[in-house]
Amino acid sequence: MAINLSTGAPVIRERRLNAILSYNGTASDLNEKSKNAELKCSGRRYGQCSDCQEGCAQSMASFVKGGAVVAHAPIGCFAAGDSVRDNAGRAVTAARKRGEFSNTAICTNIQEKDTVYGGMEKLRKALREAYKRQNPSVIFITTSCASGIIGDDVESVAEEMEDELGVPIVPIACEGFKSKVWSTGFDATFHGILKKIVREPKERKKDVVNIFNFEGTDTFTPLLAKLGLKTNYVVPLATYEELASLSEATCSAQICETLATYISHGLEEKFGVPEVKAPAPYGINWTDGWLHEIARLTDKTDVVEDVIATEHARIAEELEELKKKFEGKTVYILAGDAYTYNLSNLVKDLGLKIAGVTALHHDQKADSGEINILEKLVESAGDIHNFNVCNKQPYEVVKILKKVKPDYLIVRHQGLTVLGYKLGIPTIFEGDANYSIGYDGVIRLGNRLWEAYLTRKFNENVAAHSEFPYTDWWMNEVDDPFYFEKGGKKS
Ligand code: SF4
Question: Are residues 423 and 320 in the same domain?
């Protein structure tokens, strides 16, 4: 689908990518059904929890170095979405040697009176305050259900205040009620960046690759340096100028399609920066394929085969050792859409059998329409049974894990890691998505899983002293974790 920057917001994922929130079956079946967008995003019959797209929008905007964020929202939305970002940013900027990082977001604190009389004056005041406190190079305004429902004209305030303050002001339309798929919030920030920040290229930097990621460890630089290329990490920790010159890179890649196909496709469509149309570099064969594709786009095909052969040889011995340790063992993976597929491809290289996966949502297609990661996964790792889509919902996940009984669990989202511990399963938290990329990433993930195994007694102790807050009926009498989704009622 062409990206339409004349609108204030992206088309939500349910409509644009036919995203779904619930599925139970196999990887091959989901792939076949996705090709014709057969599955519908009907919402959940019973939802224990959810996230809001405002959090995803802010996870990008609030990490722009030298920028500021004004959340036009009640304080509750703000607390849910934004309060921890500054500390995380400081830690990673230090690790990446990017100097000081400080980005304290401001909330307009919409209250009952504002929902009657409007909150635009409060928004103007907050923008002045953000400017005064932080002297930012850019200010992002994130919206909320409340600002959307009362119809505050955020775009016109942004334009008016841009004139007054003399800095770019970027509205991000991320009202939680508009999309059931929280990842739509990433698209909302990228929409604002494409629309208001990225400029026409002054030059084409032939050795620069845009890498869309979160605030993770710097693992792409050493990998791309083997081809003589430089990494331009975006959006977290990038400056306004680095965002403006995204159009000058030679190509764009991402840690997973769920995060960034909207902007990488937009850069290709609007500014001619090609998107790397290969799965992200998780697992040996996908790292090979990713390097091949980047080499093709950057004119490095003469060196790529040597690089790959050297890297394979370098990790071969350690990989064999790890494979012996994991022989006959199973793993369950719980992560966001495409990142689940990335990790699934990686663990096969360690000799682990995939007991099942839970993806937190599933996009039945990608923005470019040319990438189908799920199909690539089925080709690469074979079919996967116990293939589930579930937007967190611990009550379902617990039942799935109890049934499947994996030897290991990998969890991308912190709040769910505890489920593995409470069930006594050696569990690792995959919080830093950059950490497992490339050839070294395979080894790192293997070592981390083995360390988790060595401390399994701790998990067993936790499990022995833990209980879940669910009834005996749910835990022991109901067999199907998707009981409610299939129309069941509490008896
Ligand atoms: S924007 Fe809406 S869905 Fe998001 S936290 Fe606020 S009230 Fe909740």
Answer: yes
